């Protein structure tokens, strides 16, 4: 039986601390070390001087703004999000709610072309803008994964990026729109005290790696190891990178997926565009051999990405899905003994 995860919000306080930032124009060995360290310590960092053209981002931002400003009856023609399409307030199939509306799209160009007809009056232009953004986001994700593979000394340099680059990858794009908070009590200084409206509740992303862009409106918060929520300052010139559950399993727990949430307390509307890099449905996820040893026995049993998705859709947003795939400690001791004798 799956127990819902314990809420990590031990206090309502949030604290502004430094967010690790990585300048992608730095040289190779330094870059892979920085990215690995940030991923190990925080499961989260900011990428500056990235390769995604400004125009690729601004074109999608404009398309999104044009869509979300439409009357509800028109937007609903692109819904419900089950799981793909337009969604309003409902997140996933198990009763999670938030102060947001969104478009959830699969990265497959055929699926995008089909969906576009319900989203925009010029579907071929919309498709091309979305495909362009996904292509750039995938490319940047793969660069980061290759740097991680280098930092982890993996013998197959493309062991991680190959999963996301796969033509049949199950990667997604989500465009979230958080309406402005009209209630002044929930905006301004109160939002820093942790009060207010939850836009997207606490969760970790299930995939391998997440690339998040947002407009210049705050809202994103990360959960630190001590349970404190730290506000992440928005930066439209950068991307935020988050380790997902699948990468935690692949690295045998060395990298940890990060719990995060988005608050909707700003008097301005927040827009986020989130690319989730995932493998194909029948890809196997299991701790990479280089990261398993008698001292670090496998923490997770092998599972397919499709199997993981099935489990994820049966759970609530804040549940710790990866716990379902943990090897019990008695088995771990047995496998350690097997290694020794
Ligand atoms: C409540 C749910 C929504 C979600 C699927 C799930 O059952 C649990 C994980 C949720 C999440 C969080 C990150 C991404 O936004 C997302 C697309 C994903 O892959 O996992 C959503 C899912 C969703 O909205 O369908
Ligand atoms: O909008 C945000 O800043 C966070 C969104 C998010 O976590 C998600 O879409 O999975
Ligand atoms: Fe997320």
From TrEMBL:
Q: What is the E.C. number?
A: 1.14.11.13
Q: Which PROSITE patterns match?
A: FE2OG_OXY (PS51471)
**What would you give as a GO molecular function for this chain, any one?**
gibberellin 2-beta-dioxygenase activity
Region Disordered, as annotated, extends over 182-201
Q: Does the keyword Flavoprotein apply?
A: no
GO biological process terms, alphabetically, are: gibberellin metabolic process
Please give the family membership noted in the entry.
Belongs to the iron/ascorbate-dependent oxidoreductase family. GA2OX subfamily.
Which PANTHER family has this protein been placed in? Answer: 2-OXOGLUTARATE (2OG) AND FE(II)-DEPENDENT OXYGENASE SUPERFAMILY PROTEIN-RELATED (PTHR47990)
Q: What is this protein called?
A: gibberellin 2beta-dioxygenase
